[in-house]
């Protein structure tokens, strides 16, 4: 695992932050470790390394770019071996990412029957049921229609299920990594439905995938019409095979499962179809034996990614605490950070443009005094909903649910600087 120690090289900071840092540095016992580097006379000329003395690798090596060979640890990982070949999930390395977007090669994967190899020229999407004129769309038909691009997170409803019964000890990639955020490009669902003309009696939409699982979910039309997209591109290029190539449904803010990949069929119906994925699976069992069904929106949630479990603070003094907040109900309004296990809170900075239903990176300044600390973050969304503590969540829902865990996450720092999920 990487360490979060600050290097002596320091990025230039915006004025506001520089002031904040100066105040912090002045007030704290241990000033910034690299303060001495400001003395010009102490700086020796830099050595000229081998890579500065000769030309580098030629163009097109490789023709489709890949990350630096020094970044080989930044990969998707699985928490456990899949039950069947092709099923299972891989998780996004949140502690090694920056900003809002997840690079395509690191978007988490959840497959119920593997990744189908679909020829886009042969693929078809049918829209039928309660419509004036059923239609079959080829990929060319879809790409010719008016398009839009939007940044939305995608979170599996099983994300962070490891923490229902208490701290799991796992690192953030394996607790919160069923989470990604992409700019999605495609056609509005409403544009497609205008093409076929829907009957007013249609209240729900059944979406079906072309994979071996033929995943099917029923969706309430009035709640998805405004935002749902039928997309063929993510982060500027065609969908990756594992994320639904050549076409998938994006239902912003809804649990990952409803975002049907490899989309082949949309059927307009009066009532939900009660498929396997909304009866036996993807329901949430309460302590009294009743189950919550059709829990679609992902509740507001946040997590600190740096520092987090598996990291080690090498020096006292300044450390930025950074992470992500998101809500299935709209924009993030604010994020609070605590370093004393939730006794006191202060506001974090939101460090990117705040998009509707997107990952919103946050950051807070922290001077580590070398003592034990408990780092936590708490998101509030634009509806005023505040991310609950684990205790409050368990009091309301019990521990029978597998899905929709959004409790406040604690990372414990001990005197050695070791960070743990405890
Ligand atoms: N056709 C189909 N769609 C699917 C799935 C699947 O297995 N088959 N998995 C679902 C689940 S459970 C999730 S969390 C998301 C994962 O999307 P991703 O793999 O692009 O991250 O896709 C959903 N759509
Ligand atoms: Mo999922």
TrEMBL record:
InterPro entries: Ig_E-set, MoCF_OxRdtse_dimer, Mopterin_OxRdtase_euk, OxRdtase_Mopterin-bd_dom, OxRdtase_Mopterin-bd_sf, Sulfite_DH_SoxC, TAT_signal. Keywords: Metal-binding, Molybdenum, Oxidoreductase. Its cofactor is Mo-molybdopterin. It comes from the Bacteria. Residues 293-406 form the Moybdenum cofactor oxidoreductase dimerisation domain. It holds the Pfam family Oxidored_molyb. GO terms for biological process: sulfur compound metabolic process. Residues 112-274 form the Oxidoreductase molybdopterin-binding domain. GO terms for molecular function: heme binding; molybdenum ion binding; molybdopterin cofactor binding; sulfite oxidase activity. This is Cytochrome C biogenesis protein CcmF. It comes from Caballeronia concitans. The lineage of its organism: Bacteria, Pseudomonadati, Pseudomonadota, Betaproteobacteria, Burkholderiales.
């Amino acid at each position: 695992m990487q360490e979060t120690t600050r290097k002596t090289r320091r990025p230039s900071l915006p004025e506001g932050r520089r002031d904040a840092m100066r105040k912090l540095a002045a007030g704290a016992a241990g000033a910034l470790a690299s303060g001495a580097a400001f003395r010009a006379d102490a700086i020796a000329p830099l050595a000229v390394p081998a890579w500065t003395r000769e030309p580098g690798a030629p163009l097109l090596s490789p023709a489709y770019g890949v990350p630096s060979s020094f970044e080989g640890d930044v990969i998707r990982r699985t928490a456990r071996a899949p039950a069947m070949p092709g099923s299972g999930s891989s998780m996004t390395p949140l502690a090694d990412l920056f900003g809002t977007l997840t690079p395509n090669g690191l978007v988490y994967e959840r497959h119920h029957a593997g990744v189908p190899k679909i020829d886009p020229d042969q693929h078809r999407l049918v829209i039928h049921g309660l419509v004036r004129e059923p239609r079959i769309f080829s990929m060319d038909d879809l790409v010719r229609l008016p398009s839009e691009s939007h940044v939305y997170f995608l979170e599996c409803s099983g994300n962070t299920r490891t923490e229902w019964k208490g701290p799991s000890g796992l690192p953030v990639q394996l607790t919160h990594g069923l989470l990604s955020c992409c700019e999605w490009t495609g056609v509005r669902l409403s544009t497609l439905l205008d093409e076929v003309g829907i009957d007013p009696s249609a209240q729900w939409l059944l979406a079906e995938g072309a994979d071996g699982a033929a995943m099917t979910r029923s969706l309430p039309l009035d709640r998805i019409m405004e935002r749902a997209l039928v997309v063929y591109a993510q982060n500027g290029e065609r969908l990756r095979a594992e994320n639904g190539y050549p076409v998938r449904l994006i239902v912003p803010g809804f649990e990952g499962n409803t975002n049907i990949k490899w989309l082949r069929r949309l059927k307009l119906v009066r009532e939900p179809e009660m498929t396997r994925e909304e009866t036996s699976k993807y329901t949430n069992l309460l302590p009294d034996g009743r189950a919550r069904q059709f829990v679609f929106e992902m509740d507001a949630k946040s997590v600190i990614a740096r520092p987090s479990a598996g990291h080690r603070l090498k020096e006292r003094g300044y450390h930025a605490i950074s992470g992500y907040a998101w809500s299935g109900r709209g924009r993030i309004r604010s994020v609070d950070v605590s370093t004393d296990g939730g006794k006191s809170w202060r506001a974090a900075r939101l460090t990117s443009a705040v998009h509707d239903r997107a990952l919103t990176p946050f950051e807070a300044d922290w001077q580590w005094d070398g003592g034990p600390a408990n780092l936590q973050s708490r998101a509030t969304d634009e509806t005023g909903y505040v991310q609950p503590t684990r205790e409050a969540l368990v009091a309301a829902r019990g521990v029978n649910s597998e899905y929709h865990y959004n409790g406040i996450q604690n990372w414990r720092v001990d005197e050695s600087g070791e960070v743990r999920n405890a």
